[in-house]
# Entry
Amino acid sequence: MERDIERKLIARATAGDRDAAAELLRHHQPSLRAYLHRLSGRADIAEDICQEAFVRVLSNLHRFDDRFRFSTWLFTIAKRLYVNARQKHCPVFNTEALGWRQSKDSGPGMKSSAGEVAGHVKDALQDALMELGELQREIVVLFHQLDWPISTIAEHMDMPEGTVKSHLHRSRQKLRKILVEHSKHNSRLKEVWS
# Structure
């Protein structure tokens, strides 16, 4: 969304225009939900925190400083809510169960071969992402999934751009190592490369 359009929507939403608020949320909801899902590894947690973040944002929209990007503000609020929820509940993630729960088929033979291979790769990447530290996982998701530039990630994470680049580089190396060394991941990826 262009910044001028976003600023107008924010001004209208602050003045009480529900349609403007809904448009703002509709635009940012998919990327925020995807970001939180990748951080937590659980769709239910991502959905809950996404909704809570939007409630907080709408309640405090009058505090938003439009010199900055709205998405950075929104994602910062969501990240804080995620960290708080994680500290409060200390969930244990079962990546095997996660892979099964994310599966959309209802039985053998329901997916096409290409869809099955793509599902295996997605599961392998999610498993590998969950093996990264939380900071590195967040940077990888922001850069590769949400296409945030390094400068925006640095602002969001409150760290120098060079540090973000270093984390991104080390994360890629670690992901590559995890995917190649783990026999389950390696076989899934060979399906794509062969």
Observations:
- The CA atoms of residues 28 and 44 lie 18 Å apart.
